[in-house]
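**Protein fold record**
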Amino acid sequence: MSDDILKPGPRNLITDVTGVSVGNATDEKVQTGVTVLRCAHAFIAAADVRGGAPGTREIDVLSSENLVGRADAIVLTGGSVFGLAAADGAASALSVDGVGLKLSDKGPAIPIVPAAVLHDLGNDGDKQWGETPPYRVLGMKAARNAGAEFELGSEGAGRGAMAGVIKGGLGSASLVLENGVTVGALVAANPVGSVYMADGETFHAWPYEIRGEFGGKSPPTLHELPEPFPDFSRLHFRAKAGANTTIAIVATNADLTNVEAKRIAMMAHDGIARAVRPAHTAFDGDIVFAIATAEKELPFDPEPLRHGLVVRIGAAASDCLTRAIARAIYEARD
């Protein structure tokens, strides 16, 4: 591999972006889990929702017209509506650590913890939890487990995920750009669409693979357009609104504004469309968060140069998300 080709960071994880840590908590009995991305301090953040059936918390607080525009952590979780409690648990754990807004000497720290959920309630796990779903406790555990290294596949928010009719999972990938900017992606992949081409072995993401990170399989022929509703999707028989989604976070160490972070989140959605066919359906709740740690300064003058660098980061984020989705399925287990 020549030196002019972009390479992943040392871990090939979103934690190659300095200041980002990730923790998982998995409940094998319920076959579900939670993944928490923690920020070293309140990082600039934005979100873009493209799916037709999203489940979210604290998305509006990230909008550029509103006051905060930052996040202390972001939660990806299974459990559908019950999973939103994972953000409560993560927020409690962070507050005890003194993380968050301090609006009064008498009150606790108030962490900003946006969240997105996927639907994994239809698997064989025990969902008879009565009035005590496990997600708040899982959110606390995941926040406290956060570190530079974490497991992919059937862990955390990926434990109960499905990708079409096959096992979904948790994935991550990174890239280091020529100017030293690092970009990474983290995803819990649970789409209604298929990640595989018609042979059932080749990922749609195969052109973006680096160093055999998801098996090194390329298609036998390149001259046929794949079926738009592949056999490996759930569109033929089990598609239900709200039952599927791809929830993701992209991160960079560049000093983006809130508006620029929003643009990165929007561009990163293309990474889902490359890896999943079809994507952004009415049955999915696809959402991408974007965070910027501001470690690497981008020039504001001349303005066209800055805009070009932001576009470059968005393109890299999209590529990382494509690879992360394929890694999620490749690393998953039954």
Observations:
- The longest helix spans residues 303-331.
- The chain is about 20% helix and 25% strand.
- The mean pLDDT is 91.
